[in-house]
Design a protein that fits this description.
single chain; PyrdxlP-dep_Trfase_major; globular; Aspartate Aminotransferase, domain 1; 17 strands; identical protein binding; alpha/beta; Aspartate Aminotransferase, domain 2; four-stranded mixed beta sheet; pyridoxal phosphate; binds pyridoxal-5'-phosphate; seven-stranded mixed beta sheet; 13 helices; pyridoxal phosphate binding
Amino acid sequence: MSPFVNKPPYPNNYGSDFLVLDRGEGCYIFDKKGNKYLDFGSGISVNALGYGREDLADIAYKQMKKLIHTSNLYATEPALELATKLCKTGNFAAVHFGNSGTEANEAAFKYARAYSQRVKGEGNYKILSFSNAFHGRTFGTMSATPKEKYKAPFYPLVPGFETAEYNSVDDLKKILDSSFAAVIVEPLQGEGGLDSLTKEFCEALHEICLAKDILIISDEVQTGFGRTGELYGYETFGLKPDIITLSKPLAGGLPLSATLIPKKVNDLIKIGEHGTTFGGGPVTTAVALKVMSIINDKEFLDNIKELSSYFKSGLEDIIISCSSALKVKGEGLLLGLQLANPNLIPTVINKCRESGLLILRTGSDSLRFAPPLNITKEEIKTGLDILKKAL
Ligand code: PLP
């Protein structure tokens, strides 16, 4: 019996062959035949604390029995506590909860446009994003995602979105005027090839945005909650955001997102202008509180930096012995390896999987590694040995 399913009843945008996964334990996943895989993908940077966690499952179970859903017509204790704690991580006055990264960014666009048009007048609604960005697949976030492959058959998109070159100060100076409501940027580009912001760019962006009252949105959907070795990716690279969007690791594998906004924005938002049915439910927020208590801890974050150095030096060793590997990319535990021949990427991914390692790709020419944040050095070594053989 094969652990794969061929042509399941999923839309064709998903390809045709799927490995059917059954259960997980720590940093390992098992398919339906019992084959074991070390997970360097974490369900695309989601499962930050690994699999099979009794503590998270227990919280979810108890909360499901107690109260499973209320809608945002009512508040619940876990959601209130999480919102309060998230606000305290920076200069934030309120949190809009949602269920996915794209929803977090859509909320940020709505708040930014409402703020800008109320402060600077109607028509000042433009949003700037950057080359190779990925912000989601709904119409607003697709409009902020420059790559054609994500949007070609879906035009017309949302008006008012423009693109600049990532890290180009010249572009910022040329493009940004006060008709822009916001700039959305990933401190480290998760899907787009793992390029990261330069200090010079962050400083110029901050200066221009301050002068023209343009909000800086840090899309932390992939970099947030420890992935880069700090609570937020912007801290690693020196960005000064007004709004933060979070999702993937927030609830340890359950769907939850958060859009953190400052007082000056919140003060101008009116009742009914945004909402959600499922976002910020008591189960996901109860689990997220536990996830946050584990990740937002100096020792835990320092350990991610230590694991990152170990992982990076292992990748550097691979570059020395494998001519097909060119360059180490990324930060923290969102790392990558640029390959000389991008056509080899699917083969390398398949070979790794056949040898018990799950990895991802990023951009046009790199492999991506985003293991659970509590992975051990031994597990990193095991994975790197498999990767080296595959290469
Ligand atoms: N923003 C970034 C930086 C992402 O990496 C992703 C997903 O990969 C998204 C937004 C969209 O998140 P979701 O797929 O949960 O809508």
